Amino acid sequence: MKIPTPHTKGAWIRLFLAAAMVLLVVYYMSLTLTNRVAIESRVNAEFIPQVAQIDGSLVGDLPKRGQIVRKGEVLAHIRADRVDDRTLIELRQSLSVISTRIQAQERVRADLTTEYDALAGRRAHHADLMRERLVAIGNELAASLRIAREDQALAAEALQRGNKLRTSETISASQHETLTHTHEKAIANSARIEALIAQNKTDQTAIAYGVTLSGNYADIPYTTQRMDEVRIKLIAIDGELRDLSEQVGHMKKRLAAEERRIAKMSEQIVVSPVNGVVWHSRDTAGQEILRGTSVVDVIDCDRIFVEATVYERFLSRIKVGEQARVKLMGDDRKFTATVFSVLGSAINIHVGDNVAVPMRKNPGEATILLSLDGNDERFRSSMCGVGRIAEVVFSSDRLIDSAYADTPERNEK
pLDDT for 309-357, tens place per residue? Predict the structure, then answer.
């Protein structure tokens, strides 16, 4: 087409402006075709789903989409309508049975202890009586021994005189034999009494230990035997009480653990893990919810990033750690960003599985993820800027290469 010759000053101005516009379009196209400027960019973030750990229903109102929340702030209250507490009931019943058994055994132990104390007092009383009786018998035997020894001495003197008279035949042989028999009888009587005294001393020594070696004292051995029987029963009961106490301790630990489990299964308080904004929430109070279902999704405003799309054939020109300038649509301010991930066109997963705004890529397009340096507070707006369109200009001079001027344009979506 033939360009008309300008004859006026206004025509020259229009021609100059048209040429400037063409040059500007060519310049920006060259920037895009050489990955100097990203084809498409937007602010994005990972949302953190807060999942229900129990089956139940929502209680009260939930925060609305876009609401700012603080770390630890309550987001939702879930209450379970049905909880299997059969184990808890069985544990409480078992604990009640063991406690009843312990109380019964403690009563038996108290009765046996009372009987044992009574038997010990009875044995001590009878031992005192026996000790007094043995002392009295010992005194009587000592007196009898003195008399017997006197009789023995008299019999010995009479026998000595009889021996002299028998020599002179003053007394008859029968009379001499009588004197001899009397002397021997006196010796035997003294020996018998000495033996009784020795036995009495032994009995007095033994009675101090609750043992009777002679005499008609049957009550003390019976009492001691009964005390031994009661002691054996007390030892058995103490062992059983120790076992029951250990069972109670173990049962209480299981009961406490089960109560904690029931408490967790009965109610769940969902709190915000970060300072951020609500991306999505269920807004119906009383709504039934299943375990594993997301209740509230929260965006961490401190971890927002920019997702930029570039041509994959020039991907080698962009390196992790390089700087870029970011400008939001409708905002004259510019922000500095750093490349932290370079993803090929075949990779659909961005940062994680919970990207707030998934970006569709065409064949031959790659994704560059950039973190905002310092995450300036001025960058934040409603929803922390997530979803806003951005312009990303990479600052590396290596990205400018005229050899890529023939790059085909981006396929239509």
Answer: 888 877 777 888 888 888 888 777 788 888 888 887 766 544 456 777 7
Domains of the chain: 34-49+297-404 (2.40.30.170), 88-249 (1.10.287.1490)
CA distance 410 to 413: 9
Say which residue the tokens 């075709």 belong to. Answer: 33
Bridge partners (DSSP) of residue 327 are 334, 391
Asked if 405 and 31 count as a contact pair (C-beta separation under 8 A), the reply is no
